[in-house]
Amino acid sequence: MRYVLDACALLAFLRGEKGADKIETLLLDNNNRCMAHAVNLCEVYFNLVREYGETTARAAMQNFKDIGVLPVDDMSEPFWQDAGNLKATIKRISLADCFGLVTARNFKSPFVTSDHHELEAVSQHFPDIEIMFFRSFGIPEGSALDTRHIKLTKTPSSPLLRDFTAFFIKHEVMKYERAMSNQEEAAA
Question: Residues near 116 by Cβ (< 8 Å), separated by ≥ 6?
């Protein structure tokens, strides 16, 4: 099954927020293909740059590629016009979400998000776009986000995905400390 991930889903996974286990399940199941539009990936990136710096943000984005998150970079005129039409119809939705939603519609895949307040209206206006809320008020048993019976089969390329954020932050801090030490030695 294919899934299109919203920025909030990827950030929740990285930060270990509520619902991160649901996103981890989607990412690690070999039967799934997870993707995100470049605009949604940009949202993740700029949030990480603000919080941790550019080097760490780049490492996180590379790790997403390594575990199989496929970037979708469609910016064709029909695509961005579809995103613009969606934004014009549902005013309270973010433009970035519109790019993710059009991606989901084009791939006939669910858009995985936690943005209830913005996206609940989408299904009323655009019934051909499936929305999956990973922080829903009750996940139906047997749905893709019901993790009770899923066996994880994909081997992550980075250490323990539950500690993903801690891993890449620690890695970058160590690199920074080594670089600073080398500069101090060179100056002495």
Answer: 133, 135, 136
Instruction: Please provide the DSSP assignment of 75-140 as one string.
Output: --HHHHHHHHHHHHHSTTS-HHHHHHHHHHHHHT--EEE--HHHHTTHHHH-TTS-EEETT-S-PP
Contact 77, 44 (CB under 8 A): no
Please name which of 162, 167, 130 lies closest in space to residue 22, comparing C-alpha atoms.
162
Q: Distance of CA 111 to CAs 97, 156, 161, 163, 175, Å?
A: 9, 23, 22, 25, 36
Q: What is the pLDDT of residues 22-64, one digit of tens each?
A: 999 999 888 999 999 999 999 999 999 998 889 989 999 998 9
Dihedral (C-alpha) 108, 61, 44, 122: value to the nearest 10 degrees?
A: 0
Return the half-sphere exposure (C-beta side, CA atoms, 13 A cut-off) of residue 79.
18
